[in-house]
Amino acid sequence: MADPDVEQGQKPLSVVITAGQRGDSPQFESVLEAIRVPRLGVGRPRKRPDLVRADKAYDSRSNRAYLRRRGIKATIPVPTDRVRNRLKHHRSVATR
Q1: Cβ neighbours of residue 11 under 8 Å, at least 6 residues apart?
Q2: Helices in 48-79 by DSSP H: which ranges?
Q3: Which of 49, 57, 78, 89 is the most buried (most CB within 10 A)?
Q4: Greatest distance between any 2 Cα atoms in the chain
């Protein structure tokens, strides 16, 4: 299974090939580590994106901590079951 990382124009920035039964979220760091964007002139390629957009499958503490550590802004939606659990935990309200 290929785990691509693309820019908005849908050009692949990096691709990591894994076994088909492997989950996508554990490959998050290796896909971002593989990014190399050449500069227009002389200089090292860029390794750190300004922003990462991902789906709910990539919402984990380890992925968010990795992005914070590298100073990368992220837009990752939170799964609804986690939102419900937070409400229940912080408000002491039972939800059905």
Answers
A1: none
A2: 61-70
A3: 49
A4: 59
Q: Structure pTM? A: 0.69
Per the DSSP assignment, residues forming a β-bridge with 74 are: 52
H helices present in 3-93, as ranges: 28-33, 61-70, 80-91
Residue pair 88/94 in contact by the 8 Å Cβ criterion: yes
The conformation of residue 46, written as its DSSP 8-state character, comes to: B
CA distance readout (Å), 57 to 35, 68, 95 = 20, 18, 23
Written as six digits, the tokens of 89 are 């935990």
Using one digit for the tens of pLDDT, what is the confidence trace for 48-75? 888 888 888 888 889 999 999 999 998 8
The token duo for 2 is: 């290929």
